[in-house]
Structures are given as C-alpha cells and as structure tokens.
Design goal:
The protein contains 14 helices and 5 strands. With about 375 residues, it is mostly helical. The two termini are about 20 Å apart. It binds glycine.
C-alpha cells in the first residue's frame, strides 16, 4: 500500500482530481504554451516566455501538463508541454544568467518528456542542463553555487530540489560523477543549513576558497536565524528525494526532522503555513505554496518509512492539502490558477498573497500521488 487512505480521504482525493481535470483542461486551452507565473484577478497575463525565459519557475507549467498527460493520456497536454520545452531552448542560448535552478526548469519539461515519451532531443536537453548544474560545483567547499555575479559562495536550501537532475544524469549516463557532486552538495547543506531543532537557514554563505561558513543571511525569510516556511519544505522534499536516489539513511532522517518541525508549526495555524515561522506576530503573512510542497515531501517520506509510520506522514500531508482546499482553492474553470494566498518571500509586496504557479504544481502532484496517478519527475 503506497498511502494508507481512509474511505473519506480517498473520496476527497477523487473529487479533487475531478475538479483538477476540469480546471486544467480549460486552462490548457486558454493559456496554451505561454509560460504562466502569477495570476492576477483570475488571469495569467504575463508570459514568462516573453518576459523572462530564464526565470526559475518556468518548468512548473509543463510539469503540470506532463503530470496530466501521464494521468489521462490526452495528447493536448503533451503537445502543449512540448511547445513550452522548445521555447526553453532560448534560455540555453542566452546562457548568461542561468543559475542552479536549471533543475526546476528542465526536470519538469525536457526530462519529463524523455521519461514519458523517450524523446531523444529531450534527453539531450536534460543532459545539457545537468552539465550546467554540475559545472557550478566548487570542489574545495563541496557545494554547488546557487547564484551568479559576486555570489560564488552563496548556497540556498532550494537547491535540494535541483540536484535530482544530477541523480537522473548519473543514471542515464551511467556516470557516478554526477552522484558524487549531488551527494557532496547535500552533505554540505545538511551540515550548515539544517539546525538541530529541525528548522533551516534559507541561505548560507561559504568561503569559496575553503568552504568555511561565513554568514546566514535572511534570504526570502524574515531575518537571519528565522525560519522561512517554503525553505523548510525544500529541505523536507529535497532530502526525502536524496534518500530515494542514494539510500543514505541520514538524508531520510534529515527530511523527517525538518518535517516534524514543519508539522508542529503548521498545526498551530490550521494547516496553512505562515511565510516565516519565526517572524513577529504582526503583520501576518501566509504562504499556501509551502503547504503544497510540504505535502509532496511528506508523501515522499511516507513511501520510505515502515508500514506503521506511513499513516502519520500521509495524514499530515492530507491536513495541509485539505486546509488549502477548504480555504484557498479556486475551482472555477473560467479563471486561471487554483491555489490563492501564495507568497514569494517575507519582504516583497508584489508577490504576497497571490496564486503562484508552483503552488498549483505541487497541489496537483500531491493529489495524483494519493491516487497513484502521478509520475515522479524529480
Ligand atoms: N527561490 C525559490 C523559491 O522562491 O522558493
């Protein structure tokens, strides 16, 4: 049994899947191969293919379409996802400005295509992206640099979701180097990012010559030492996936430790995460997207624990999903985006309490997981 669902939970998942099908069919016909990011008043106005082809979230729309194609077999989803994949070639051409988020961008577009259809051109795109990611490795500090310009020692916890691209390349090429880089990176991050209480730094700054820890800036959280909720979820899901790909027990233990902290925090707010668990009481800022990423991470953990523990992680994921569904999901097929109340970061206003594409992606992945209709794209 992949997930121990009770009857009512299965019915909820099936009903939600029916709503997802209706919503995404209409949205796919309306949005097509534009690359959506944030919906405003029920409309995805901005097309990232036009405005910012190297933006880190550009893989989530094709990822959602590939998930739907895998679940339903409707060609419209595959055709549209492949159009987006082709547009992303422009990001390779630009090259300058590409960052560690090549994992988020190409795992869900080209690599998904290759996994599902065996498209050789997609495989080449995925391997190109994997080489770019491996090329960012610092062998002294044993980490992959996240960003560009003068930030050669900056690493963010989000990177844990990019390294599955390296595990995939290792498998496809039969070349262990990609696994060495991914594991070194995960080990370094585990040492400096995950705190003993299960909370995490978002950003660590390492000396690029020696790997020594120099600083822990606030990043997208409230302050240095605080606890940005989506960062927590990147650690939960990222380490659970690292365990899947390596079998290293300490990765699963880390995912569980961060998960326990996250569950305790979100229990206090009815399953809707604050943007930062260690911010002042006022103003109150929410980030529903963190709940969806966490749900997928918790479901991933549930797959790797003994039978008796599965229910704990599955229930925790369901609590997050159902809280979001009850309070913040828009199932009107005439409007773009499902999940409202996402927030990009603690400090920015333009992306506060808005629907963001990755919230929808993780919601869809989680519901498909519950029904065993997903494909693992990580
Ligand atoms: N930097 C990735 C995120 O906003 O979660």
């Amino acid at each position: 049994m992949r997930y121990p669902l009770k009857d009512g939970e299965r019915i909820w998942a099936e009903e939600t899947y029916a709503k997802i099908q209706k919503k995404l069919k209409a949205e796919c016909l309306r949005v097509g191969s534009k690359i959506p990011y944030i919906a405003r008043n029920g409309v995805y106005e901005e097309d990232k293919a036009e405005t910012d082809i190297i933006w880190w979230t550009n893989g989530f729309w094709p990822g959602m379409l590939w998930q739907m194609y895998h679940a339903m077999g409707e060609e419209m989803y595959a055709d549209t996802a492949r159009e987006v994949e082709e547009k992303l070639d422009k990001a390779f051409d630009i090259y300058t400005g590409l960052h560690h988020d090549v994992g988020f961008m190409w795992l869900h577009s080209a690599v998904a295509d290759y996994r599902i259809t065996g498209n050789e051109r997609s495989k080449a795109r995925g391997l190109h992206a994997a080489h770019l990611l491996a090329g960012r490795y610092n062998p002294r500090g044993k980490f992959i640099r996240s960003w560009n310009r003068d930030r050669s020692g900056w690493v963010i916890v989000d990177s844990m979701m990019n390294i599955p691209l390296l595990f995939w390349a290792k498998e496809v090429l039969g070349d262990p180097r990609f696994g060495f880089v991914a594991e070194d990176h995960a080990d370094t991050l585990m040492k400096y990012t995950v705190r003993t209480d299960g909370s995490c730094n978002h950003v660590i700054v390492l000396d690029p010559e020696t790997g020594e820890l120099l600083d822990t800036p606030a990043g997208q959280g409230y302050a240095s030492g605080s606890s940005w909720s989506r960062g927590q979820t990147w650690a939960i899901y990222g380490y659970a996936l690292a365990y899947r790909h390596t079998g290293k027990q300490e990765y699963l233990d880390t995912a569980k430790k961060v998960a326990h902290y996250f569950i305790a925090q979100t229990d206090r707010t009815g399953g809707i995460p604050l943007v930062d668990f260690r911010a002042p009481k006022e103003p109150v800022y929410w980030d529903t997207t963190a709940g969806m990423c966490a749900a997928c991470g918790l479901l991933e953990i549930a797959e790797h624990v003994p039978e008796l523990e599965k229910e704990f992680y599955t229930d925790a994921a369901l609590k997050l999903l159902q809280a979001a569904d009850e309070r913040y999901c828009n199932w009107n097929p005439d409007e773009d985006s499902i999940l409202a109340m996402g927030s990009g970061s603690y400090a920015t206003e333009h992306d506060r309490h808005v629907p963001i594409i990755y919230g929808d992606y993780y919601l869809v992945e989680a519901v498909l997981r519950l029904l065993d209709k997903d494909i693992l794209l990580w």
